[in-house]
Amino acid sequence: MKKKTQITLFALTVISILLVVTIAVSASPNGDFNAVYRIAGTPFTWIASGVRKAVSGISDWFSYIGSYGKVKAELEELRQKNAEIPVLEDEKERLILENNELRRLLDFDDYSTDYNLVPAQIVAEDVTDWFNTFTIDKGVNDGVKRGAAVIAPEGLVGIVTEEGLGTSKIITIVDEDNAFMCRISRTNELVRVRGVSHEKMVYELRVDRLSSASSIEVGDKLVTAESGGVFPTGIMVGTVKSVSIDRENGIATALVQPAVDLTLLSKVFIMIEK
Q1: What three-state secondary structure class fits 78?
Q2: Which domain does 196 fall in, by range?
Q3: Which of 21, 35, 116, 178 is most buried, by CB atoms within 10 Å?
Q4: Angle, in degrees to the nearest 10, between helices 3-26 and 32-106
Q5: Residues 6+ apart with CB under 8 A from 48
Q6: Residue 36: is its pLDDT beyond 50?
Q7: What is the DSSP code (8-state) at residue 129?
Q8: Domain CATH for 248
Q9: Dihedral over alpha carbons 106, 109, 110, 115 (to 10 degrees)
Q10: pLDDT in tens, 150-203
Q11: Phi-psi label, residue 250: left if phi above 0, alpha if psi -120 to 50, beta otherwise
């Protein structure tokens, strides 16, 4: 056996013996060696405690950095959702209004079962400010056809006179060239109605050729009649606001206030026959 190997084995033996003795002596809480260990070991305990706290602090710091990144991402997501809320509210309000308009339209009569209602937006109005004509954003591509009736929730608006691929032109019921048949709701009397447009921006209809036996009165409601087939029957047209008799020829006429306020109109519905 080499001398170096012998020295190594000897050193290991001595260390082993010292460890056994140390364990045996330290097992006694009242032993002198244990007291020495407590005094000598205290600084090492402090050092170990400090190291543990430092390591714990570093771990907490990295954990905080990770949590901060997660919280920041969540806050950004919340900001994006909050930014979308006004848009969603506007869309919700629009859908509610459109739904209410459709409900009011369907309350007219059962003609809705024979027609599809195509909503359209007014994109251009009569340049004369007489509101005789206007242009909508729907055309042939949407099923719009010339001669189709145009209505609003309040009643009759007019008729399609020209149709393009994506737009159409509407002539309103107050145009002087627009004449059609109506019935008085109260008496079912058949009368002819013609549009009247004044330069003073007065929009009304005139009932002419009334018979001497006519019982038309102020406040009577007029609805579209079946005569001529221009418009579906039963659509609200307007309310009689005055009745007069020409003293020279004895002919009676009546003025009617349209049910739809054309000055406030922005959306209409085209009635497309199924």
Answers
A1: helix
A2: 179-263
A3: 178
A4: 80
A5: none
A6: no
A7: S
A8: 2.40.10.350
A9: -60
A10: 999 899 999 999 999 999 999 999 988 888 999 999 999 999 999 887 656 678
A11: left
Reported as type and span, the H/E element at residue 119 is strand 115-125
158 and 238 Cβ atoms separated by less than 8 Å? no
d(CA 150, CA 249): 36
Strands 190-197 and 149-152: unpaired
Helices within the chain (DSSP H only): 3-26, 32-106
Would you say residue 174 lies in a domain? no
Q: Is residue 273 part of a domain?
A: no
Phi, psi of 217 (to 5 degrees): -135, 160
The whole-angstrom separation of Cα 257 and Cα 268 is: 19
Query: What would the pLDDT profile of 213-248 be if each residue is shown by its tens digit?
Result: 788 899 999 999 986 678 888 899 999 999 988 777
Q: Are 274 and 116 in contact (CB under 8 A)?
A: yes
Q: Domains in the chain: how many in total?
A: 1
How far, in Å, CA of 119 to CA of 271, rounded? 9
Alpha carbon distance 174, 265 (integer Å): 14
Residue corresponding to tokens 């009759």 = 156
> Does a structural domain hold residue 130?
no
Only one residue has tokens 């400010």, namely 129
The answer to whether position 214 is within a domain reads yes
Q: For residue 172, count other CB atoms closer than 10 A to its CB.
A: 24
Per-residue pLDDT band for 11 (boundaries 50, 70, 90) equals: low
Least confident of 63-72, 157-166, 256-265: 63-72
What SS3 state is found at 220?
Answer: coil
Distances in Å between the alpha carbon of 263 and those of 70, 92, 105?
A: 55, 26, 20
